[in-house]
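pls design
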């Protein structure tokens, strides 16, 4: 006879066990490489490698890959400055995907059946008047919750099972502040950053309690007068720090042993007018090593002091333990937006090496092999000029610099294959023209207020801007191979154990490449702009590659006329064999 009580008890045991396993714990995040089927945190693993140990799809059979399914996403609406673009990395946990739309809408998608479908949606109802062009870069998983931070400055915890809100906290409160980088949940703290990099605000990074959303600490990336680093803001009026920028608008990497958060910062504001904010402008254009539990800065490395070319260094800083000069070193590596590939010792920020990876580079004659600073840097000088005639000045007319102000590699993620010791970076190939304008005068006259976009100049692309992928070898210390594409890359890459490097391009193409030669092995045309990074995962033993597609045209900005009529779309593409 069927025992109903036993059945209920058995179900309860199964449910509790299943629920417990489905929770995202620090142990799971720290050992994410043991779950190649999942993508539990923004960069796949906390070290930022974006390497997927799956090989069902590989360099020999990828030619047979096709669309497995697509899911149109909603929340397509203009902000006060128009449409934005998908730049989000989806997460995957135990057969479910968590995709984030343009307006921070979260979609939980059941991937397990023959017809994947949206299980629930959570809409934070962002204020369209506050948001210019909507962009978000993803969510975080912690315990049984989904964590998002919104462009209008809130951090929200959502129940994973029901899609209902657990709590909500307004963290960013000043005009021009808000979130775009995906939050990172680690060791009982949620790490978030003020991410509006070109607005006249003061950058900061905060630690938030996952229990109730309360703010635990805040570190300002622009020091106030009297604080360490304030001596690098030398304007006579001592007002530039208030609008100094240095926003951290991309999710960083995490060392589980030291509990350090490694995060890059953006340009000083105004980006093109250094005469408004003379000095080295700490902690802009830098890598910061921050204690996740206290918010204290352990060390920093500044790439381009007193930057005037918009060379943010917010992009991927991958953590790896590899040999350098015959000695095993704990390193952090970075494809700089300024065109150089950097290796640093992550225990103390010591500079190890820098190698040019971009084709055209003329803003400096090189990187000092001892200090890691650009050639031409003069300590204590208010206005840097890294090469004669190469710095914008008021009344000086336009200047041209290479690489493009977007890089090189900008904020989109890079990937590292530990088996080959190759680091892959995709980006722009080209140059920019910039010229100082009268924004600073308007700010000083009160015609522009803190929190407004404050560029200090105008910009344009010089000629057609194309794209590339570079493979840098940690064995040889040089670029081993390179692939060139007729349109720029704004998406970043993922690497897999199947010998593949996959990416998307602004002309709508999704491509996969041989991980050694970077020869193109497969392509698919989506018909819309791609600015989001691909991921790979598996469900029921089957491997997939997924990417969010949809964005505004890059025709005018990058001089790509063939993309002029590309229409905005909001679609999740998923591929398999």
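designed seq:
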């Amino acid at each position: 006879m069927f025992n109903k009580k036993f059945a209920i008890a058995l179900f309860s045991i199964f449910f509790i066990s299943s629920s417990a396993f489905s929770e995202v714990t620090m142990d799971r995040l720290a050992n994410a490489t043991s779950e190649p089927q999942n993508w539990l945190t923004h960069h796949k693993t906390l070290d930022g490698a974006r390497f997927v140990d799956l090989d069902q799809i590989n360099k020999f059979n990828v030619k047979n890959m096709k669309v497995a399914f697509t899911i149109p996403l909603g929340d397509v609406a203009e902000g006060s400055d128009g449409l934005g673009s998908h730049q989000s990395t989806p997460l995957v946990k135990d057969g479910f995907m968590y995709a984030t739309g343009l307006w921070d809408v979260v979609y939980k998608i059941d991937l397990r059946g023959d017809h994947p479908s949206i299980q629930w949606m959570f809409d934070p109802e962002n204020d369209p008047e506050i948001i210019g062009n909507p962009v978000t870069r993803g969510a975080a998983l912690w315990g049984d919750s989904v964590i998002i931070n919104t462009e209008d400055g809130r951090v929200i915890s959502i129940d994973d099972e029901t899609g209902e809100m657990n709590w909500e906290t307004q963290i960013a409160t000043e005009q021009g502040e808000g979130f775009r980088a995906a939050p990172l949940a680690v060791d009982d703290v949620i790490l978030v950053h003020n991410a509006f990099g070109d607005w006249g605000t003061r950058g900061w990074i905060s630690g938030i309690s996952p229990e109730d959303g309360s703010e635990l600490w805040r570190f300002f990336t622009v020091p106030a007068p009297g604080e360490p680093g304030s001596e690098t803001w030398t304007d006579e009026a001592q007002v530039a720090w208030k609008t100094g920028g240095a926003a951290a608008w991309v999710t960083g990497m995490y060392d589980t042993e030291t509990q350090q958060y490694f995060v890059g910062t953006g340009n000083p504001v105004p980006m093109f007018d250094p005469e408004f904010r003379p000095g080295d402008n700490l902690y802009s254009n830098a890598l910061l090593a921050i204690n996740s539990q206290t918010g204290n800065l352990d060390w920093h490395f500044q790439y381009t002091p007193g930057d005037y070319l918009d060379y943010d260094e917010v992009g991927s800083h991958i953590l790896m333990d590899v040999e350098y000069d015959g000695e095993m070193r704990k390193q952090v590596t970075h494809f700089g937006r300024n065109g150089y590939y950097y290796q640093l010792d992550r225990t103390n920020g010591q500079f190890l090496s820098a190698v040019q990876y971009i084709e055209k580079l003329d803003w400096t004659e090189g990187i000092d092999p001892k200090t890691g600073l650009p050639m031409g840097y003069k300590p204590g000088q208010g206005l840097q000029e890294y090469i004669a005639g190469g710095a914008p000045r008021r009344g000086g007319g336009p200047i041209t610099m290479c690489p493009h102000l977007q890089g090189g590699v900008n904020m989109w993620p890079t990937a590292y294959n530990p088996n080959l010791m190759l680091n892959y970076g995709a980006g722009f190939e080209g140059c920019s023209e910039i010229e100082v304008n009268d924004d600073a005068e308007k700010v000083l006259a009160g015609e522009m207020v803190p929190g407004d976009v404050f560029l200090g100049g105008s910009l344009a692309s010089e000629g057609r801007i194309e794209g590339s992928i570079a493979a840098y070898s940690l064995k040889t210390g040089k670029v081993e191979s390179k692939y060139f594409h007729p349109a720029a890359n704004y998406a970043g890459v993922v690497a897999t154990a199947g010998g593949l490097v996959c990416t998307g391009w602004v002309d709508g193409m999704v491509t996969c490449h041989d991980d050694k030669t970077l020869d193109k092995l497969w392509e698919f045309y989506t018909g819309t702009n791609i600015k989001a990074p691909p991921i790979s995962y598996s469900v029921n033993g089957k491997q997939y590659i997924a990417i969010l597609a949809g964005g505004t045209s890059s025709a005018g900005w990058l001089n790509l006329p063939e993309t002029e009529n590309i229409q905005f779309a909001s679609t999740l593409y998923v591929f398999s064999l």
